[in-house]
Amino acid sequence: MSEADKRDRPWLMRTYSGHSSAKASNELYRTNLSKGQTGLSVAFDLPTQTGYDSDHPLARGEVGKVGVPIDHIGDMEVLFNKIPLAKMNTSMTINATAPWLLALYVAVAEKQGANPSELQGTTQNDVLKEYLSRGTYIYPPGPSVRLTTDLITYTVDNIPKWNPTNVCSYHLQEAGATPTQELAYALSTAMAILDAVRESPSVTEERFTAVVGRISFFVNAGIRFVEETCKMRAFNVMWNKLAQQRYGVTDEKQRRFRYGIQVNSLGLTESQPENNVQRIVLEMLAVTLSKSARARAIQLPAWNEALGLPRPWDQQWALRMQQVLAFETDLLEYGDLLDGSPVVEAKVQELIASAEAEIARVAEQGGMVQAIESGYVKRELVKSHTQRMRDIESGDLKIVGVNCFTETAESPLTAGADAGIMKVDVKAEQEQIESLQAFREQRDQAKVKKALAALREAAVGGENIMPVSIDCARAGVTTGEWSEVLRETFGEYRAPTGIDISMAGQADSSEMDAVREKVRQTGEELGRPLRLLIGKPGLDGHSNGAEQIAVKGRDAGFEIVYEGIRLTPSHIARAAQEEGAHLIGLSVLSGSHLELVNDIQSELQSIGAENLPLIIGGIIPEDDAETLLSHGVQAVFTPKDVDMNLIMTDMVNIIRRSNGLEELV
Amino acid sequence: MESTSDSSQIADLVAGIKRRERACLAEALNLVDDRRPVAHEQAAKLLQELEQASLAAHSHLIGLTGPPGAGKSTLTAALISLWRQRGRRVGVLAVDPSSPISGGALLGDRLRMKISAGDDCVFIRSLASRGEYGGLSAEVWPMSLVMLAAFDVVLIETVGVGQREIDVASICDTTCYVAQPGSGDSIQFLKAGIMEVPHLLVVNKEDMGAVARRTLAELGTALGKAHADGNWEVPVLAASATVGSGIDEVADALLKHWETLIKTEQLVRRRRRSQARWIIKRIRDEFGSQGISRLGGEVELMQRISVQRRSLFEQHETLRLILLETGETHA
After folding, report:
1. Shortest CA distance to B232 belongs to which of B210, B254, B209, B213?
2. Which residue of B has its CA nearest to A573?
């Protein structure tokens, strides 16, 4: 047997991508496939993820920004033009609207002449973590679990090779989860979903075992790569035990922990962004080193994600990292390198023990759905994330180029005319809206009406949502229409923010005391405690940054008014006035900061509150930051601003300046 | 609102409040929140105007209280949309606790009150308890006067378990207690007489099923039905703000209590009494219990203030001056 024969088959290699329009994304996919990518990973824009058509007011500025806009079957056809779906393995990062996007996928496959039963791929379809991080939920937890379950039972019967749900711990780590919390909450989520499927009357015992076998996970790997490897091994052990003991799965193959991975975006830095390359490579080792706990599919972020949207070349670089590891190194020639290591085994056991204790705490509250609704899980995550931020601030957690070794030569990578990031075509949104409106005009309205009526009936009556959704897709229903019917049936949900964490454990330091004194003194001079309104305009649900500022602001003595995610510019302006805010702080991570700030400023003007100072935080390229400042925004904060005390002091001085007071040093 | 000084500007502000102009409402709320002496004078003038309006009683002041997690904000949100359907204009004061260490606060109640942003007939102001956990900071009462002048229904939402409920009950026309299913606390407090009996008890989260039904039954038996105010039997209702059941009944019961207050001519008396309590509270905040006893003790003071026909704000100023002067004599 030759060396090559002994080699393991490499994992599926993907790049999470999609932008501007179905046409532009299709071109990108075909280029990526020609470069040796072996699967597709579709990024949808926020309106598609949260169930709005591209011409909805909340979608303004968001169309085509963080992914591809899909309004109807026409867009989906263009997206997969000349990509035979029968042969493709497609991962779709889609949750609240997962049944709808899968319905569109099936309808397009049919049009291509493929048999739906041959389709392979993954729908993320894990809404529970959306309540904790990421924020693209729509409906309350009960109906959301039902939609998840419908998709699972449908695919097990009709698309047997499909991975119907990808239980995500990825986003939990992004929200601050420790390895223990990742293990505990991901497995508790899987239990919540499987328990619901088991209770569903249409599922026989035999089919249920198949469902357990189809559950896959989407995991994160951070820079502590030894611990992360141990985490993956712990997942293996715990899932195997759970499938056997709780769900009685006898076939060992169906108890395997199958997972895909995207490595850490939380730890990617804006300062000295080239350091992200070595971070990503080391993190990839965490999920490949141990053969028995190796990822089935890997997608790596690009080095410049903390700066803005990656360009095709940046994505190619990320793909090449995987190819070098898989095809140049000898990693795939060996069995498991870590079996028998006492150090690894001890760490794995430690993680299992602590995760089991946390799982028990969640179970005591009635399970994951209840622990989310009560705010418990979110509170624990905010606590962990706050601790992390404090450790970075104090220097206990070292980040090269951020809080140590900060001196640097100028980077040629960001010196180009594009500053090292991709610029989305500003015309894309308008073009998408026009094509949507044209599509709506030409379709058979009676057919649409009939399909939507059937959808409503299934939603109310409890019949599986998938067949009627596929009919909707064929009839030319739009994403917004499909979601709206379900919104009317199930209601809309607002998730707990977790910022009501206990007053204990507030950071105490002399710098903090000094900041508090400034806040107090300024409040006294202005007659009442300083008020900061924190708003997240648009559809982007990444609320961790906003929540950290909220908690820190509270600790510093501000009265913080926080309304959570998905607010319109007019809502934010009016709330700031009603609440008597001294300052408005916006958080935008979707790239639509220019449009949204502009809209909020005109709303403020229209209600006579144009003198209220405005600051913004988010992933904001330098050019845009300058534009914002020249348009009257008082300060722009980006991921490289890690000193929270400094941010607080800036906020106090901005308030002082706009009220004619001398700045404090 | 840093420089308005003459009375015509105050008159303009009052007129703006009555027209529910949002900028005027916000300005007035900022003014009564402002602790600087110059603002204090203007606020007194403003409130003097509004006080008369409040005694005319066209609007209903409701206190909504209960333990953390009982679902007060979602219930408030459901009530707001129901009142809007019934054509009532609504103001809300939502109180959250302040941090005892930093004095800062996280005010997140708006989060659960997703209101259509374009609706000019709903106005929400969040407030920090500012050192009065479960209680009300001194600004709540003047703020409620501003709101009463503009809206048909004004609701004060506050966290409370036990003793401090009295705070919200003492300034509102109607107090509604929201109980958490499965929690025995509320019942214990009611039985032990620690908590003043509210005018309406709601077990929220009716969708929790058996647990909610048990709590409902326990509350029903724990209470003597008749309220100490007289003329009122305390209803115990089940509701679920998330699925939208029982909200009509809660709104009806609140309205019925208010109509009873008017019919039995208790409303004006109740409001005068709560205004007197507020003066005593302000004086206690500024001069301590010592100050109260120097003015003859709480009972005596209450008596004195309630019978006076003069504006309460004038009275407040007079009492302050007495204390400041006699304080100087002592020094």
Report:
1. B254
2. B117
**CB of B130 within 8 Å of any CB in chain A?**
yes
Among the partner-chain residues A140, A528, A568, the one whose CB lies closest to the CB of B242 is A140
> How many whole angstroms separate alpha carbon A314 and alpha carbon B314?
72
Q: In this model, does residue B231 exceed pLDDT 50? A: yes
Order of strands across the sheet with B90-96? Answer: B122-128, B90-96, B153-159, B60-66, B174-179, B200-203, B236-238
Question: Which chain B residues are within 8 Å of A374, Cβ to Cβ?
Answer: 69
Whole-angstrom Cα distance, residue A589 to residue A565? Answer: 12
Structure confidence at residue B2 (pLDDT)? 44
Encode pLDDT of A112-142 as tens digits.
Answer: 999 999 999 999 999 988 888 888 899 988 8
CA B313, CA B311: separation in Å to the nearest integer?
Answer: 5
Spatial separation of the C-alpha atoms in residues A411 and A375, rounded to whole Å: 43
**Assigned token pair, A568:** 């319109």
Q: What is the pLDDT of residue A612?
A: 96
Q: How far apart are CA B311 and CA A165, in angstroms?
A: 67
Contact by Cβ (8 Å): B203, B187: no
Structure-token pair, residue A457 = 């009936």
Question: CA A34 to CA A18: how far, in whole Å?
Answer: 16
Residue A447 has pLDDT above 80, yes or no: yes
Cβ contact, residue pair A554, B23, below 8 Å: no
- Contact call for residues A250 and A307 (beta carbons, < 8 A): no
**Min Cα–Cα distance to chain B from A237, Å:** 35
Q: What is the DSSP letter of A27?
A: H
| pLDDT higher than 50, residue A503 | no
- Which residue from A500, A516, A578 is facing B102, i.e. has the nearest CB? A516
Rounded CA gap, A185 and A129, in Å?
A: 9
Give the torsion sign (CA, B187, B189, B192, B196). Answer: negative
Contacts of A192 (CB under 8 A, 6+ apart): A128, A145, A367, A368, A369
Which residues are CB-neighbours of B36 under 8 A, at least 6 positions away? A527
Alpha-carbon distance of B319 to B292, in angstroms, equals 10
| Span between the terminal Cα atoms of chain A, in Å | 73
ipTM for the predicted complex comes to 0.88
Render A50-85 in DSSP notation, one character per residue: HT--TTSGGGTTTTTSSSB---SHHHHHHHTTT--T
SS3 A533: strand
Q: With an 8 Å Cβ cutoff, is A357 touching chain B?
A: no
Catalytic residue numbers of A read: 16, 170-171, 536, 540, 542
Regarding pTM above 0.95, the answer is no
- Token digits of residue B221: 């038996």
**CB distance B61 to B156 below 8 Å:** yes
- What are the tens digits of pLDDT across the range A572-619? 999 999 999 999 999 998 888 998 999 999 999 999 999 999 999 998
